[in-house]
TrEMBL record, chain A:
<dbReference type="GO" id="GO:0035861">
    <property type="term" value="C:site of double-strand break"/>
</dbReference>
<protein>
    <recommendedName>
        <fullName>Checkpoint protein</fullName>
    </recommendedName>
</protein>
<dbReference type="GO" id="GO:0005730">
    <property type="term" value="C:nucleolus"/>
</dbReference>
<dbReference type="GO" id="GO:0000723">
    <property type="term" value="P:telomere maintenance"/>
</dbReference>
<keyword id="KW-0963">Cytoplasm</keyword>
<dbReference type="GO" id="GO:0033314">
    <property type="term" value="P:mitotic DNA replication checkpoint signaling"/>
</dbReference>
<dbReference type="GO" id="GO:0006289">
    <property type="term" value="P:nucleotide-excision repair"/>
</dbReference>
<dbReference type="GO" id="GO:0009314">
    <property type="term" value="P:response to radiation"/>
</dbReference>
<dbReference type="InterPro" id="IPR016580">
    <property type="entry name" value="HUS1"/>
</dbReference>
TrEMBL record, chain B:
<comment type="subunit">
    <text>Component of the toroidal 9-1-1 (RAD9-RAD1-HUS1) complex, composed of RAD9A, RAD1 and HUS1. The 9-1-1 complex associates with LIG1, POLB, FEN1, RAD17, HDAC1, RPA1 and RPA2. The 9-1-1 complex associates with the RAD17-RFC complex. RAD1 interacts with POLB, FEN1, HUS1, HUS1B, RAD9A and RAD9B. Interacts with DNAJC7. Interacts with RHNO1; interaction is direct.</text>
</comment>
<keyword id="KW-0234">DNA repair</keyword>
<dbReference type="GO" id="GO:0000077">
    <property type="term" value="P:DNA damage checkpoint signaling"/>
</dbReference>
<dbReference type="GO" id="GO:0030896">
    <property type="term" value="C:checkpoint clamp complex"/>
</dbReference>
<dbReference type="GO" id="GO:0006281">
    <property type="term" value="P:DNA repair"/>
</dbReference>
<dbReference type="Pfam" id="PF02144">
    <property type="entry name" value="Rad1"/>
</dbReference>
<comment type="function">
    <text>Component of the 9-1-1 cell-cycle checkpoint response complex that plays a major role in DNA repair. The 9-1-1 complex is recruited to DNA lesion upon damage by the RAD17-replication factor C (RFC) clamp loader complex. Acts then as a sliding clamp platform on DNA for several proteins involved in long-patch base excision repair (LP-BER).</text>
</comment>
<keyword id="KW-0539">Nucleus</keyword>
<dbReference type="InterPro" id="IPR003011">
    <property type="entry name" value="Cell_cycle_checkpoint_Rad1"/>
</dbReference>
Amino acid sequence: MKFRAKIIDVGCLNHFTRVVNTVSRLTKACVLRLTCDHLYFVLSGRVASGGVSMWCELSQGNFFDEFQLEGVSADANEILLEVAPENLSRALKTAQNAKSVKIKLTKKSSACLTLAAELPSLSSVSRVVTHDIPVDVIPRRLWHDFREPQMPDFDVSIYLPPLKTLKSVVDRMKNLSNSLVLEANLNGEMNLKIDTDLVSVTTHFKDLGNPPWGDDGSQSSSPHRDPELMTEVCVDIRKLQQFLTGQQVHPSRAMCNIVDRRILHLIFLHEDVSLQYFIPALA
Amino acid sequence: MPLSTQSQADIDQYILIASLDNARNLSNILKAISLRDHAIFNATQNGLKVTVEDSKCLQANAFIQADIFQEYIIKEDAVGFQVNLTVLLDCLTIFGGSTVPGVCTALRMCYNGYGYPLTLFLEEGGVVTVCKINTQEPEEPIDFDFCSTNVTNKVILQSDSLKEAFSELDMTSEVLQITMSPSHPYFRLSTFGNSGNAHYDYPKDSDMMELFQCTKIQTNRYKMSLLKPSTKALALSCKVSVRTDSRGFLSLQYLVRNDDGQICFVEYYCCPDEEVEEE
């Protein structure tokens, strides 16, 4: 197994750092899946993480100037590592103004991702700061847990309202209730609702637009679905708030898919990064 | 405006309707009295009075006159109810605490009467939020029996002068002592904390002193924990009047200008602490 990669563009470095920061705010531990063309940060839905799962996909070529990978075997040309994204975040923080950042899979007392940042210095010799981030190599027999999630058979897909507004409303609702109902229809309407002994609050969003999934999406497979009909899911507000608060990468597209009463699937798309987050319905 | 989404039938059922183009003109002043969870609302033809009390020793009132509201309809002589103030503030600021200048949350607050929730319609940028907050039977606010004829000492100060003192008050002191006297030290705030005693003096001829009417020397102590929250009201205000009566009861009255420059009042009444020292 071999992995070495290098970033030399400061814009790419900043962008990569922001993505890692976002991931570190969503989970304490995740799997970094490396293939020839992509990097993925994966969290598979487990009871321990409260059932949420995350799939963050980066196109390697948009970040790295050099990228060499030799996977576990010829027919399984990938490497999967369990890592604490916060460690990576912290290491990248010191590399903020680096002339170059090299990342390498190494073996110290155990497997590590070694990050070496070449920092600008006044003398002719550059300063290099090195971080050894401990990782656990995931054996091939467990790889099936970290495959790309299937697009769920959703009932409604809808673009999200402006994130700033959505975040403000969710922040306030979190003070008032532990759970929130998100409902939406094919008419571009979305409502956020909370209902407790003390208060009930409903926020109505209109004219959001529904993504045209086309032939391969379920949305068009039920053409007779009444566009006014709402589909809903009840989720833990803290999980939704955690997702919205963590965002450091401003998406060019933000949308969600709802599986009636089962799953809230959030999708944030950027030119070279996509982030999917699945929040299960509260029991 | 939510107005357009409501039918005449909806509007007819309410006994109180109060609307503002800028919800901050209500939420800011309510924050100035948000010492406890529960607030007693008393609406009359003149406007809205909101009262919050703490352990029967402190009362904070906010007055928002009817003409502050863009729309104010009341169908009875007096309408009273009690709500959870923390919940109300979260609802009033549902679109975010501080917003871009020029962008406001519009508010319409409606009440159907006894047993019904307080209904808020809030709108910002085309997004509408509807809140229904449960109400309770209003408690009778304490009458502190503070009337102008009993006032022994009175000063009116520009708030700026007190803001610094209040923000620096030694919180390890259990009491805040207020001395008012026709002679030196004139107006003095004192604390007695772990690191020692601190005094803030305001001479009667200071620029900040707008009015000085002290007839006899009085020193009273008030629980710090009761008075410290008044700092919120002080921060919003431009002027404050400090009055004590013959019993040592304290009245603080704050003149607050809202976002649109209109004037509202906040007042605090506080009982003196048990051990009163007479100098």
